[in-house]
Amino acid sequence: MTMTKLTLSKTLLAITLGSVLTTGSALAAETTTDKAQSTASSAGDKIDSSMNKVGGFMDDSTITAKVKAALVDHESIKSTDISVKTDKKVVTLSGFVESQKQAEEAVSVAKGVEGVASVSDKLHVRDAKESTAKGYAGDTATTSEIKAKLLADENVPSRMVKVETTDGVVQLSGTVESKAQSERAESIAKAVDGVKSVKNDLKVK
Q1: For residue 172, with 0-12 CB atoms within 10 Å meaning exposed, 13-18 middle and 19 or more buried, which class applies?
Q2: How far is C-alpha 183 from the chain's CA centre?
Q3: Which end of the chain is more exposed for a tag (fewer CB within 10 A), N or C?
Q4: For the whole model, what pTM was predicted?
Q5: What count of Cα atoms within 13 Å lies in the side-chain half-sphere of residue 75?
Q6: Rounded to an integer, what distance in angstroms lies between the CA atom of residue 148 and that of residue 203?
Q7: What pLDDT, in 10s, does the model give residues 119-137?
Q8: 51-125 in CATH: which number?
C-alpha cells in the first residue's frame, strides 16, 4: 500500500513538473512572439512615417512648379520677380510687383493651382517713382537687367544666351537645349521694364 502511494506521488510530481515546464515554455514563446510583433510594428510605423515625409516633400515641389508655371502663363504678372515656396501645401509668394492689383492677381492664380491649401502673400509693391525711372532706362541698363534675370533663373542656360538691346527692342541669340528654355528666356526678357519687344533668335540644339 505504501509503495503504491509512493509511486502515485512520484507520478503526480512528474505530471506537475511537466505542466509547469510546458507552461513556462509557452509563456516564453508567447513573450518572444509579442516582442517580434512589437518590433515589426514599430519598424513599419517608422517606414510609413518616412514615406509620408518623402511624399509630402514631393507634393510641395510639384505644387511649387505648378504655381511658377501658372504665374509665367499669366501675361499681366511679371513672375520673374516673384519667389514661390511651398511647405505642407501652403504656398508663400514673395518678391516685388508693380501694383497691388498684380499682387492680388498673383495670389488668385496661386490659389487656383491644384493641391494648394492656402496662400501667404508677402509680395511688395514697387515704389511708383522707381517704376517710372526704370521705364526710361537706357538700352545698356535693360540688357544688364535681362542678363541678371537670366542668370538667376535655374531653367535657362544664361551663358549660352546673348542679349542685345536697341531702342528698347531686345534680341536674344545663341543656343538652348529645348523649346521650353527658349520660351522661358523670351518671357523673362519681355517682363523687364523698358522692353518694347523681343526678337527671339535662339536655336534649340
Answers
A1: buried
A2: 23
A3: N
A4: 0.40
A5: 0
A6: 21
A7: 998 888 876 555 445 554 5
A8: 3.30.1340.30
